[in-house]
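Hi all, posting the design record for the shared folder.

TITLE: backbone redesign
STEP: 1 of 1
STRUCTURE INPUT:
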């Protein structure tokens, strides 16, 4: 009796290896080791499994990512003929883009008040702002007065007429304070006292006059 051996043709489709990612602002480029047997690679980001991203080269760039958000990225090899590999994955967090408040401006300036406004990081962030202000015309009092607010403006009051004020703002953004902003300097309106003119004297009497 002759026995013939049979070895089945087992197709292997290895999962992607060497996953690496480079984050640049709100974009992220993922790379992995090439596989000559791969037809393409199927990528999933964020847990939505309905539509896959298909990459035909061993790299892909994600755009429009949200600062301070985390993403889980899965990738598998498509070897063709209905054969796919197991999933490989990695976890990334897009860094926050918090910067000091900008475009400080003072308007509605009066003798004793002013409105100071600025631009924050943006609506993607839950920000608290801290403004500090001091009267630079009083050299003997260099201390700062501070105010915290959710708004991107502060109405200052009880200021001294005819004085120069220094203002800076910072924000508590994505869990930490930014640096102080560039300095804004504004001056309150001075109080002007006019010297009386056109004085006349009439109805002169020994003990007085009008």
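Okay, here is what came back for every position:
SEQUENCE:
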């Amino acid at each position: 009796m002759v026995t013939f051996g049979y070895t089945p043709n087992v197709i292997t489709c290895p999962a992607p290896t060497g996953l690496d990612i480079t984050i640049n602002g709100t974009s992220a480029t993922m790379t992995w080791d090439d596989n000559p047997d791969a037809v393409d690679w199927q990528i999933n980001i964020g847990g939505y499994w309905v539509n896959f991203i298909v990459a035909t080269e061993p790299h892909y760039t994600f755009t429009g990512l949200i600062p301070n958000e985390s993403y889980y990225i899965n990738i598998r090899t498509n070897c063709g003929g209905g054969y796919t590999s197991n999933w490989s994955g990695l976890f990334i967090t897009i860094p926050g883009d918090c910067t000091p408040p900008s475009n400080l401006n003072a308007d509605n300036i009066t003798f004793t008040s002013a409105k100071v406004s600025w631009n924050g990081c943006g609506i993607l962030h839950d920000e608290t702002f801290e403004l500090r202000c001091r009267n630079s015309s009083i050299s003997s009092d260099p201390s700062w007065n501070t105010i915290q607010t959710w708004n991107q403006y502060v109405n200052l009051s009880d200021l001294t007429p005819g004085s120069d004020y220094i203002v800076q703002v910072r924000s508590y953004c994505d869990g930490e304070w930014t640096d102080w902003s560039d300095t804004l300097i504004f001056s309150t309106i001075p109080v002007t006292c006019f010297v009386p003119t056109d004085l006349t004297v009439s109805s002169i009497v020994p003990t007085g006059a009008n």
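COMMENT: DSSP finds no helices and 16 strands in the chain.
Let me know if anyone wants the other runs.
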